[in-house]
Specification:
Layout: E1 3-9, E2 13-20, E3 26-29, H1 33-46, E4 49-56, H2 63-81, E5 90-97, E6 100-107, E7 113-117, E8 124-125, E9 128-129, H3 132-144, E10 147-154, H4 158-176
Parallel strand pairs: 3-4, 7-10
Antiparallel strand pairs: 1-2, 2-4, 5-6, 6-10, 8-9
Helix pairs in contact: 1-4, 2-3
């Protein structure tokens, strides 16, 4: 079963995540409405079962909550993937969302890296600072042990731009974590 549960409690946040790579219930609560919407889209479009309960110091801002959620989700992904045998390993996907177009490519390699290129049309949408998108994805990639490339090609509406990114990442991960029935996809024999 490709599932994992992870928690993290600090003076700034208290986060619990349950993840199933093969689908299941989606229940998201972070205290940041737009971020909840993005994590829900991520789970639905990735075909993942995902429960997130995050309580953070939102009186400061959303940074700690968003980044720490990325850390915990990344650790859950790494645990759920185990030794990474029998998965496609690579995935890439474009998502058009009205006027916005985003691209994501992933290598479930064990070598964490984030390349992020996006200039957003606005600084915020709702109570969500758009700069936190890169912070979330960096925390996720580093803790999941994946190489992730994300590019916002263009757009004019911040909501659409960020949502296209989250959906592109989800679809790329869905493809990369798809079960192939083979061994570890590496000439080295391990990742």
């Amino acid at each position: 079963m490709r599932t994992a549960q992870e928690t993290r409690k600090t003076k700034e946040t208290d986060i619990a995540i349950a993840l199933s790579l093969d689908g299941g219930a989606v229940e998201i609560s972070t205290g940041i409405g737009f971020f909840d919407h993005m994590l829900t889209a991520f789970a639905v479009h990735g075909g993942f079962g995902l429960q997130v309960k995050a309580v953070g110091d939102l009186y400061v801002d959303g940074h700690h909550t968003v980044e720490d959620t990325g850390i915990v989700l990344g650790k859950a992904f790494a645990k759920a993937l185990g030794d990474k045998s029998g998965i496609a390993r690579f995935g890439s996907f474009y998502i058009p969302m009205d006027e916005a177009l985003a691209f994501a490519a992933v290598d479930v390699s064990g070598r964490p890296f984030l390349a992020f290129r996006a200039e957003f049309s606005q600084e915020r949408t709702g109570e969500y600072d758009l700069c936190l998108t890169e912070e979330f994805l960096r925390a996720f990639a580093m803790n999941a042990g994946i190489t992730l490339h994300v590019r916002l090609e263009y757009g004019a509406n911040a909501h659409h731009e960020v949502e296209a990114i989250f959906k592109a990442v989800a679809h790329a991960l869905r493809l990369a974590t798809a079960q192939t029935g083979g061994g570890v996809l590496s000439t080295k024999g391990s990742l």
